């Protein structure tokens, strides 16, 4: 970890610095407390000065909310195209995070010592420690209050889990691992016809949910690949919880493992844009690197008469991030052809939210499962 330094109590203080986005420690820092006014805090945050909070924890949350409201009051410029709306939306998201992340909290061995602070140690440990049997939290750790609240929220969701009808069970996502809250793509996987595959691969498994659905469909041997350390642990725990460890092997691999398979499934990030945090890597795939890598590697890894499934949304095309015929061109260039395409409509709230800046695209979005074979 990086370290953050600041002046307090007549001497220089030092602590480990945590930023999920990989942001460096702020160069300017002031101490804030219950007397700090929201307008002053907002001005400082906009100027790049961080505020290390030393008052009541609930008041710190209220200050963060007040700063967030001021950020959100900024008028939105009319956009001429959906693509312009997207870039404007992303810029606002990033700008909002940069400002609201300026309210900082110090933890000591994972605990917040501010008055009325909740017990956050389990949430912090679950987010930052890969081996949760070991307590390696630093003596002093500074991070944004916004990020800490995200850890606490993720910890609660992780305990609760997300119900997956195809499994008749819950899937539990770790902090930094995308939760399968959009179930329509899982319905496509659960309903697509199978040609009696003996060996299947789930590329970029995340929580392990697709691998688990494949096992419930009768596939005896599934290999699930990942590169994200958190996802590797998360998938392993979910598979063990479902008692599928004899059917699913989780391996660290960049896309494909060694060998060949009868069925290879991938649900890559759907939008070709830059991800700013680990969790965003499940949504944004800069220059469609994972999508292209998957398509271009299939022919070498499919068994004769093997089949590949690609789960994709057309949101990128509706926004203007990808040309309408570009995906089909990549499929053809990879020596593949589409034998069938199943479609479904999104069921998430943003598809009906007319206030969403991308509503015009989201309301028309179609999620598809492409069944591919080698030419």
From TrEMBL:
Pfam families given in the database record:
MTS
Q: Name one GO biological process term.
A: methylation
Name all Methyltransferase small domain ranges. 191-313
Q: Which Gene3D superfamilies match?
A: Vaccinia Virus protein VP39 (3.40.50.150)
Q: Which UniProt keywords apply?
A: Methyltransferase, S-adenosyl-L-methionine, Transferase
Q: Which GO terms describe its molecular function?
A: methyltransferase activity
Organism's domain of life?
Bacteria
Q: What is this protein called?
A: Methyltransferase
């Amino acid at each position: 970890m990086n370290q953050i330094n600041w002046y307090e109590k007549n001497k220089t203080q030092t602590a480990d610095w945590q930023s999920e986005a990989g942001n460096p420690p702020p160069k300017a820092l002031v101490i804030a407390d219950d007397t700090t006014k929201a307008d002053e805090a907002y001005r400082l945050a906009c100027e790049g000065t961080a505020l290390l909070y030393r008052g009541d924890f609930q008041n710190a949350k209220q200050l963060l909310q007040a700063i967030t409201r001021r950020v959100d009051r900024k008028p939105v410029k009319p956009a001429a195209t959906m693509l312009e709306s997207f870039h404007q939306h992303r810029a606002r998201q990033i700008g909002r995070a940069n400002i609201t992340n300026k309210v900082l909290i110090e933890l000591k061995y994972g605990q917040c010592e501010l008055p009325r602070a909740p017990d956050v140690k389990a949430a912090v440990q679950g987010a930052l420690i890969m081996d949760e049997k070991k307590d390696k939290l630093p003596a002093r750790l500074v991070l944004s209050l916004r990020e800490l609240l995200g850890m606490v929220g993720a910890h609660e969701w992780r305990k609760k889990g997300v119900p997956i009808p195809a499994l008749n069970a819950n899937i539990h996502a770790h902090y930094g691992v995308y939760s399968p809250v959009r179930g329509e793509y899982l319905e496509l996987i659960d309903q697509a016809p199978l040609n009696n595959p003996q060996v299947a691969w789930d590329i970029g498994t995340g929580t392990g949910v697709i691998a688990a659905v494949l096992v419930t469909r009768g596939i005896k041997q599934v290999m699930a690949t990942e590169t994200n350390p958190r996802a590797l642990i998360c998938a392993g725990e979910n598979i063990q919880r479902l008692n599928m460890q004899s059917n699913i092997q989780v391996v660290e691999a960049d896309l494909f493992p060694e060998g060949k398979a009868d069925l290879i499934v991938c649900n890559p990030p759907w939008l070709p844009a830059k991800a700013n945090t680990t969790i965003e890597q499940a949504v944004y795939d800069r220059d469609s690197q994972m999508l292209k890598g998957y398509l271009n590697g299939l022919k070498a890894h499919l068994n004769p008469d093997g089949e590949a499934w690609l789960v994709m949304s057309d949101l990128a095309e509706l926004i203007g991030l990808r040309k309408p015929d570009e995906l089909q061109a990549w499929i053809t260039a990879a020596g593949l052809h589409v034998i069938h395409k199943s479609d479904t409509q999104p069921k998430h709230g943003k598809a009906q939210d007319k206030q969403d800046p991308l509503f015009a695209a989201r309301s028309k979005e179609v999620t598809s499962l492409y069944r591919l074979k080698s030419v």
